[in-house]
């Protein structure tokens, strides 16, 4: 602050010809100037974020109405939610009267990672290898929205 209690700010702006001009906070800009503003935010504390997964696919939950058997292990899922993301799962659930489906050629952890990617409340960082395995399952199960989401994260 200066002696009069006003804050002195100096900005650098560019005119139409890309020439740099310095202005102070009490100067007025006329049309034809380009002003670039940069804001830096420093987080000091984060609250309200769950560190563990909200969905546990390994135990029964009343919201889950189907079971996938992968490498001999049970994975509990919700038919409607999974069908809304994957057309392949939709047809699997439509053709099987039983709510238990055996998935062959799928690794258990890859299937869990795929399901965690689908559920938006599950927070986890994925490395590129895990993402590529999730993309492979998304292609197999025709979950195009998952492929699009991962593509946005990578690029």
TrEMBL record:
PROSITE patterns: BTB (PS50097). Residues 64-127 form the BTB domain. It holds the Pfam family BTB. InterPro entries: BTB/POZ_dom, SKP1/BTB/POZ_sf. SUPFAM superfamilies: POZ domain. It comes from the Eukaryota. This is BTB domain-containing protein. It comes from Pristionchus mayeri.
């Amino acid at each position: 602050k200066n002696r009069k209690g006003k804050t002195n700010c100096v900005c650098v702006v560019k005119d139409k010809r890309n020439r740099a001009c310095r202005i102070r906070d009490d100067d007025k800009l006329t049309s034809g100037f380009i002003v670039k503003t940069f804001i830096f935010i420093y987080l000091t504390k984060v609250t309200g974020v769950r560190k563990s997964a909200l969905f546990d696919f390994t135990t029964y939950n009343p919201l889950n109405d189907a079971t996938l058997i992968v490498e001999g292990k049970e994975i509990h899922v919700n038919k409607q939610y999974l069908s809304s993301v994957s057309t392949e799962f939709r047809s699997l659930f439509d053709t099987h009267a039983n709510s238990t489906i055996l998935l062959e050629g799928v690794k258990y952890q890859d299937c869990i990672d795929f399901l965690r990617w689908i559920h938006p409340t599950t927070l986890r960082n994925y490395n590129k290898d895990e993402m590529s395995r999730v993309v492979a399952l998304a292609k197999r199960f025709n979950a195009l929205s998952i492929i699009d989401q991962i593509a946005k994260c990578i690029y």
